[in-house]
């Protein structure tokens, strides 16, 4: 974070503010962990802070301290709008373009609040007057820890904050195995554990709370896996009918795409998930090495993210989209097989 933005933020937070904190639509562990961690810190610093989520999020994230205070914009629309309208400061966490918040976008665009962006994705837009954007960071939760440190507040990190921030770092680093995990990441995690983060319990809460139907859905996904050895690529499809058959709940497909990368020699893995309610296919893309799924998704699937983890979407059917996807691979064969 540059000194100008830091000093501007310190000046704003030197007096009590009405603050709204916003994660992206379909928030994941990093989005919920970072918003809750920041909310606890701001509340303890004398500010009135409210998290407004664009929509619901998985049950396995709802154990986090402060979860019950989060407003769901879809379900608590009037209360959410009131908080946004009265806000003097709006923090946007784990996204860098207002298009990532769905129906909330027009409401935020009308706000006269000071916007503060904290995010680690590529190609940020310029809606925020104060920006902390760093693509080298493992997670937005690690950035929130840094932000608290910039504000001379690490001594105020309590067990609640530590548990929230640890969750986001753990989930966004794939339990510390992704290349974005640095020695600094481990230093931050060590301090969070010292300050009360229950690392073993957090891992259990996130990864060991499966329902039988989720494992059956995983079995279905793995049966649908297609291996394209010529391109060191794997893709998985899940139709709406298959999701319904196995009683799909939000978050059930989290991590499915990563199974493709466990196969020897595979460098690129994709999952296509049908969502008839929204009329789209949701796409998750993962890679190992220097093949950028961020660039691939931005160019072909209206998405983006990180070099090795990105999202996208398609307005076409599963059959049309996978045919298009396979047709693209010949243009990337050298990158995928080098």
Explain this structure to me?
There is one protein chain. This protein is an alpha/beta fold. The protein folds into two domains: 3-207, inorganic pyrophosphatase (n-terminal core); 212-337, Diaminopimelate Epimerase, Chain A, domain 1. The protein contains 13 helices and twelve strands. A six-stranded parallel β-sheet has the order 3-2-1-4-5-6, sandwiched between helices. A six-stranded mixed β-sheet has the order 7-8-9-10-12-11. The chain is globular, with a radius of gyration of 20 Å.
Supply database-style keywords.
Diaminopimelate Epimerase, Chain A, domain 1, inorganic pyrophosphatase (n-terminal core), 6-stranded mixed β-sheet, 38% helix, 338 residues, alpha/beta, 18% strand, 13 helices, 2 domains, 6-stranded parallel β-sheet
């Amino acid at each position: 974070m540059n000194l100008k933005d830091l000093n501007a933020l310190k000046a704003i937070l030197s007096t009590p503010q009405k603050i709204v904190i916003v994660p992206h639509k379909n928030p994941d562990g990093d989005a919920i962990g970072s918003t809750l961690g920041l909310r606890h810190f701001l509340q303890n610093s004398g500010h009135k802070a409210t998290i407004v989520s664009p929509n619901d999020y998985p049950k396995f994230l709802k154990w986090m301290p402060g979860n019950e205070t989060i407003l769901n914009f879809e379900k608590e629309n009037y209360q959410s709008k009131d908080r946004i309208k009265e806000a003097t400061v709006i923090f946007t966490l784990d996204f860098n373009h207002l298009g990532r918040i769905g129906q909330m976008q027009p409401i935020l665009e009308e706000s006269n609040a000071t916007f503060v962006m904290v995010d680690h994705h590529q190609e940020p837009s310029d809606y925020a007057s104060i920006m902390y954007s760093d693509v080298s960071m493992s997670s937005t939760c690690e950035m929130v820890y840094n932000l608290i440190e910039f504000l001379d507040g690490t001594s105020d990190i309590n067990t609640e904050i530590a548990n929230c921030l640890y969750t986001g770092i753990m989930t966004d680093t794939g339990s510390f195995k992704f290349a974005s995990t640095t020695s600094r990441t481990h230093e931050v995690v060590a301090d969070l554990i010292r300050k009360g983060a229950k690392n073993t319990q957090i891992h259990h809460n996130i990864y060991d709370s499966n329902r039988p139907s989720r494992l059956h859905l995983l079995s279905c996904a793995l049966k649908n896996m297609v291996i394209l050895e010529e391109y060191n690529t794997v893709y998985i499809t899940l139709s709406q009918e298959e999701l319904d058959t196995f009683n799909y709940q939000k978050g059930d497909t989290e991590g499915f795409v990563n199974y493709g990368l466990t196969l020897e020699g595979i460098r690129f893995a994709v999952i296509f998930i049908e969502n008839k309610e929204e009329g789209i296919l949701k796409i998750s893309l993962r890679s190992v090495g220097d093949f950028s799924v961020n660039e691939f998704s931005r160019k072909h699937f209206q998405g983006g993210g990180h070099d090795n983890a990105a999202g996208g979407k398609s307005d076409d059917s599963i059959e049309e989209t996978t045919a298009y996807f396979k047709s693209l691979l010949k243009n990337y064969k050298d990158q995928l097989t080098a």
